[in-house]
């Protein structure tokens, strides 16, 4: 069982060690490479700043299993230009962030390791500091392995993001307490389990799936919990959304999730990042944030 006190201390250490690592400034227009150190971990971050427009949002983009963050940054540039948004694509190299740390977010928590999902909140704070954009909404966007990482962030370690976009992950955090962490909330430290589950259901989560992402994936071969979610990514995404909606009704909590399919698209990050469905979700999040 994860140690709640230890996890809280680790989170505090992340924030404390984050202090002073970033100075507010003006990011150059176009592509750049920035870096930040969080709790002793160095992150290279591929960045894009559109020219000649007033920034409307910060997009933090999480790459798939190949951890090709610069490619994801580049694929998000048309979206960034259209929405006049900054793009930050932090690199989580496989050598330091294997599957248990990246795809599973570092859960269940080891006493010797900071769960990787805990880095997102200070990374969000750093993007504001380094860009000097304190008021625009932060929107998290992940595809495949990056979407699995953001699933764990949303469930177990959320920050100040206005929306989390989950695209084509192989596994989900099930919104119930029968399935163990990192696929559900069983063994999550009590008495936090039910409040955190309610919060997860109420979060603004946009599930965007490729309508043709129907190949059987290897993730189901190694975990019975993952296999129970469905035969392929499309099926698992539809199942997870239906489960979450049903659970929100059962617990009588606001339900913040949406689901959208991208036609004629499989497990293709560039097509997903270029999709009208993602653009619509980003625009909706920006307008919603600006109206508050």
Provide tags for this entry.
single chain, 292 residues, alpha/beta, Rossmann fold, eight-stranded mixed beta sheet, 11 helices, 8 strands, 38% helix, globular, disordered N terminus, AB_hydrolase_fold
Describe the structure in your own words.
Residues 1-24 form the signal peptide. Keywords: Signal. It comes from Gluconobacter vitians. By secondary structure, the protein is of the alpha/beta class. The protein has helices at 4-18, 69-75, 77-83, 120-131, 145-156, 193-202, 219-222, 224-227, 233-251, 269-273, 276-291, and strands at 30-38, 41-49, 57-62, 85-90, 138-143, 163-167, 205-210, 257-262. The protein starts with a helix and ends with a helix.
User: How many helices?
Assistant: 11
The residue ranges in which pLDDT falls below 50 over 5 or more consecutive positions are 1-24
Structural shape: globular
- Reported by name, the CATH topology is Rossmann fold
CATH architectural group: 3-Layer(aba) Sandwich
What is the number of beta strands?
8
Work out the radius of gyration: 18 Å
Spatial sequence of strands, sheet with the most strands? 1-2-4-3-5-6-7-8
* The CATH superfamily title: Alpha/Beta hydrolase fold, catalytic domain
Tell me the count of domains: 1
Instruction: Report the portion of residues in β strands.
Output: 15-25%
Mean pLDDT: 89
Helix and strand sequence: HEEEHHEHEHEHEHHHEHH
Helix content: 25-40%
The top-level CATH class is: Alpha Beta
């Amino acid at each position: 069982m994860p140690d709640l006190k230890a996890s809280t201390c680790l989170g505090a250490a992340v924030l404390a060690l984050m202090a002073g690592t970033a100075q507010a400034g003006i990011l150059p227009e176009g592509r750049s490479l920035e870096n930040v150190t969080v709790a002793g971990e160095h992150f290279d971050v591929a960045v894009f700043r559109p020219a000649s427009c007033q920034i409307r949002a910060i997009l933090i983009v999480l790459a798939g299993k190949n951890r090709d963050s610069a490619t994801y940054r580049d694929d998000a540039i048309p979206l960034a230009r259209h929405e006049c948004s900054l793009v930050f694509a932090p690199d989580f190299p496989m050598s330091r962030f294997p599957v248990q740390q990246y795809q599973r977010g570092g859960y269940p928590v080891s006493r010797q390791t900071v769960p990787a999902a805990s880095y997102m909140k200070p990374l969000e704070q750093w993007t504001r500091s380094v860009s000097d954009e304190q008021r625009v909404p932060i929107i998290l966007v992940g595809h495949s392995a990056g979407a699995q990482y953001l699933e764990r962030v949303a469930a177990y370690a959320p920050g100040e993001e206005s929306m989390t976009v989950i695209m084509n992950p192989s596994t989900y955090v099930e919104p119930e307490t029968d399935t163990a962490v990192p696929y559900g909330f069983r063994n999550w430290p009590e008495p936090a389990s039910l409040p955190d589950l309610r919060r997860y259901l109420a979060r603004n989560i946009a599930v965007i799936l490729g309508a043709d992402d129907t190949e059987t994936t290897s993730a189901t071969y190694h975990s019975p919990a993952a296999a129970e979610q469905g035969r392929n990514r499309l099926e698992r995404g539809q199942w997870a959304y239906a489960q979450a909606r049903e659970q929100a009704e059962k617990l009588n909590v606001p339900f913040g999730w949406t689901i959208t399919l991208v036609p004629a698209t499989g497990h293709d990050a560039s097509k997903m990042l270029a999709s009208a469905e993602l653009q619509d979700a980003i625009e909706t999040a920006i307008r919603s944030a600006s109206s508050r």
